[in-house]
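input
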Amino acid sequence: MGGPGEPPEGTPEGAPAGGEDEYRSVVFDESFVRAARLQEYSAQERMGDHTHAVRRRPARHRNLSKQAMILVLLIAVAFGTAIYMGVRNPYQTPVAGRPEPLRMTIIPLAPPGSVPGAEKVADLYEHSPAAQFRAGASGINLPSARRTSHFSDGQVMTALTTAKDYLVESSLDPDVLTGGAVRSARILLDPQQLDQFDESFAHPAADGRHAPTGWLVRFDPTKTALASSGIRVHGTLHATETDKNTLEVTSDHTFVYALRPVGKGEHAKASLFTVRRELQFRFDRDDLRMRQAELLVSYTQAGPLACSADAANQLRPLLAGQKAKAGGPAGTDPYATGDATALCGALSATAQPSL
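output
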């Protein structure tokens, strides 16, 4: 007779037997059995003094494969190397050296005769070599900036524009020209050159290191006034890479100023005064970031001046109708390339208005 719930004829052939259906989905394969943490004692073991029918199997220690261990070791080495490189970087940026002191030369140019003058400034410029020069900062043209081996286009342009800014502030600013404030030019210099700059203005000296007129153009405000703000300018700027951390910019510009004597009013005749400035700037990466410059060399020719005049602190131009007591040993044209004599030069007649 069949058991409870079974058909009287027994389980049909091929049909699942009784309650096995509800456990058929549970498969106890060999791996499952091996992984079991509990193990049933054998019948003989259960006959002993054991109180429990099962025992806990010791946990299986899975040994890492050789490849996994190598991978973990490589990750640890890479991580340690990254930490070491972060603490001790062998490619640190070189520390910039202290800027060299500015070396400056100022050459007075004495006129061969009386200084030409005119009531109208436009007439002076029209009859001078500066007739085609542009006025003001527009006369300081920037060349196209081309990247170098170690500096980008933008960095080269930063060097050029900083040099131009210094030329504008030190050669065209009316306050600077009339012996007033110098801060606009000072803030464009590398901070390590400021001691030399300040010493030059506190204690001017014609020693090639501490002449204010080596840093900028300024006239004696007690004798000279600007007759026009339209200063004529012409020249060039050129940038080169000297090493992987340094750019240099050379500038060569001629500035032509219209001047009148102080206290004579606009009816006094005006005259032209010419200043040829050749400057050499140097920029390290800190200078480029701060938009400041190291001024290395300043070479100035200026006239008409008397050879005996002290041109270190202020320029004291000879104005319309005045003469120099003695000319220089040779004619020098500040509009043309070439060096003047070491002490004083004679201003070429072609460099003055032909009135």
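quick obs: The first strand starts at residue 38 and ends at 40.
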